[in-house]
Design a protein that fits this description.
With about 230 residues, the protein is an alpha/beta fold. Helices cover about 45% and strands about 15% of the residues. The chain has one domain: Rossmann fold. The strands form 2 sheets. Strands 1, 2, 5, 6, 7 and 8 form a 6-stranded parallel β-sheet that branches. The longest helix is centred in the C-terminal third of the chain and has 21 residues.
């Protein structure tokens, strides 16, 4: 089984981070009973000094290169990933996409309706490349901006409703799509280092939500255990 992580800055991480991708790799190593691969066209972290995704300085230097693969980008959202996902899925032969996108779109690029349209385009492009692909989509977790910007908070809420509708409309038996829940205990003032990007506890909560959906819905892996 081939997994691909797709996301924005919360997923790619910055130099010195573990990333929730690392936590998910640890979980798969511990619980997945069978061969698997993590695939994707990228492996870097974002270097804030260089302002480019050129770092390989993961917090754990023993994080193996083959498990660092992803399709994530700092400042990239649904509109950026929709044109890329087809070729990434095709080349990596991905079976399962674990997707965390939308916050950057709503914060800087597109309102809820257009963001939802880009999500539907992403799904269509992924399926065109690999018709039986499965997907788990994480709703947008409001960041610190939502506490003081009511219109932005409203767009986040509306997009999450539209994303749930897209999942209900588009999920099929041949290519199922699941909507993860926002991690129940996720708290931005405790689980992020800046009100947006996950710290160690936030990484575990994000990985844990994906792991729970995979295990409960498809019997993939086991229950997530935070060290």
């Amino acid at each position: 089984m081939r997994f691909m992580f797709v996301g924005d800055s919360m997923t790619i991480g910055r130099a010195g981070d573990y990333t929730w991708r690392y936590r998910m790799w640890q979980h798969l190593e511990a619980t997945f009973d069978g061969p698997y691969r993590i695939v994707g066209p990228r492996c870097e972290l974002f270097d804030t000094g260089a302002n480019e995704p050129v770092s390989h300085a993961y917090a754990d230097p023993d994080f193996p290169g083959h498990a660092r693969r992803h399709l994530a980008g700092w400042g990239e959202g649904w509109q950026h990933m929709a044109p890329l996902i087809g070729s990434a899925v095709r080349s990596g032969q991905a079976d399962v996409l674990l997707v965390s996108l939308g916050l950057i779109d709503l914060g800087f690029y597109t309102a809820a309706d257009e963001t939802a349209a880009n999500a539907r385009r992403f799904i269509a492009e992924a399926r065109a490349a690999r018709p039986g692909i499965r997907m788990v989509l994480l709703p947008v977790i409001p960041n610190v901006r939502a506490e003081s910007d009511a219109p932005f908070a409203a767009e986040v809420s509306r997009f999450n409703e539209l994303l749930a509708k897209a999942v209900a409309d588009l999920s099929t038996e041949a290519s199922p799509i699941l909507l993860a829940a926002r991690p129940e205990a996720y708290e931005i003032h405790r689980d992020t280092y800046d009100g947006t990007h996950p710290n160690a506890s936030g990484e575990h909560r994000l990985a844990g939500e994906f792991a729970a959906v995979l295990h409960q819905a498809w019997g993939v892996g086991g229950p997530y255990r935070t060290p």
